[in-house]
Amino acid sequence: MKIKIIVPGKLSKHLKSAVDFYIKRLKRFAKLEIIYTKLGGDLNVMDSKTILNKEAQNILNAIGKADFILLDLHGEKVTSEQFARMIETDRLKGNMTFVIGGPLGVSELLRDQAKRRISLSDLTFTHELALLILLEQIFRGFKIIMNEKYHY
Amino acid sequence: MKIKIIVPGKLSKHLKSAVDFYIKRLKRFAKLEIIYTKLGGDLNVMDSKTILNKEAQNILNAIGKADFILLDLHGEKVTSEQFARMIETDRLKGNMTFVIGGPLGVSELLRDQAKRRISLSDLTFTHELALLILLEQIFRGFKIIMNEKYHY
């Protein structure tokens, strides 16, 4: 199964080893691709709506025609078990695309086009911490699907 | 203000730079102490209840007489804004203690004694990922309290 994750911006150095840890461990389960798209612009010279729309366009270009699951603070909350079942369902289709918002959040354009919107938490996370959490949940999801032990 | 975080087990290598990143940035705001307590035992030779009780005892020894906030999957959900107000309230008291459960979760003993139980998510996280998320939220909390810009 192919899993694509699209996230605006770059990964900070302090999160690299943690993200790499899960990329390596996920190889057993899926062909993972993480695409870092260009940020929409600088808040000092542009308004947030313009930035969000630019970011959304970059993200939609990276998605192509695939349907996608949007990580959204105001989305639906799921347990790790339910998240695992989402992966299990999409495995039959062979691919799955996740989109994470940028530093300013997600645009309405993305909200409208998402197949499903899920919320990791009521808490706001940095977009790169959201990436790490998503990777851990995908890994956990496969462990649940495969009925493998995972006590961490 | 003093902030103490108690978490069973050790920190994995792949999360060290991320945890260190927030420890460093929090120095401006608080005197932070992270205490890693001993795990309760091995599931292959002990049952989970015994392990959890042992872990709880190690945690309670590390807490001393302070009241504490327990991170618990089944606790109350808060937004980052509400979390910041919790810190703001406890700043007057001068100290704050957080407890994170171990790989097997939290014992009833800890649930009973906690001043407050908060849930980061409906998703289950590793205890060390919970530590990282907590550190980021404490940092975000201070940025909110101080009314400082924080777009990440």
TrEMBL record, chains A, B:
Q: Which species is the source of this protein?
A: Thermosipho ferrireducens
Give the family, as the similarity comment puts it.
Belongs to the RNA methyltransferase RlmH family.
The protein here is known as Ribosomal RNA large subunit methyltransferase H
> Does the entry feature the keyword S-adenosyl-L-methionine, yes or no?
yes
Asked if the keyword Methyltransferase belongs to this entry, the reply reads yes
**Subcellular location per the Swiss-Prot or TrEMBL entry:** Cytoplasm
Q: Which one Pfam family would you cite for this protein?
A: SPOUT_MTase
Could you tell me which PANTHER family the record lists for this protein? METHYLTRANSFERASE, RIBOSOMAL RNA LARGE SUBUNIT METHYLTRANSFERASE H
Q: Which InterPro entries did the record assign?
A: Alpha/beta_knot_MTases, RlmH-like, tRNA_m1G_MTases_N
Instruction: Report the catalytic activity.
Output: pseudouridine(1915) in 23S rRNA + S-adenosyl-L-methionine = N(3)-methylpseudouridine(1915) in 23S rRNA + S-adenosyl-L-homocysteine + H(+)
EC number from the UniProt entry: 2.1.1.177
| Binding residue positions for S-adenosyl-L-methionine | 71, 101, 120-125
Secretion signal span: none
Q: How does it assemble?
A: Homodimer.
According to its UniProt entry, what is the function of this protein? Specifically methylates the pseudouridine at position 1915 (m3Psi1915) in 23S rRNA.
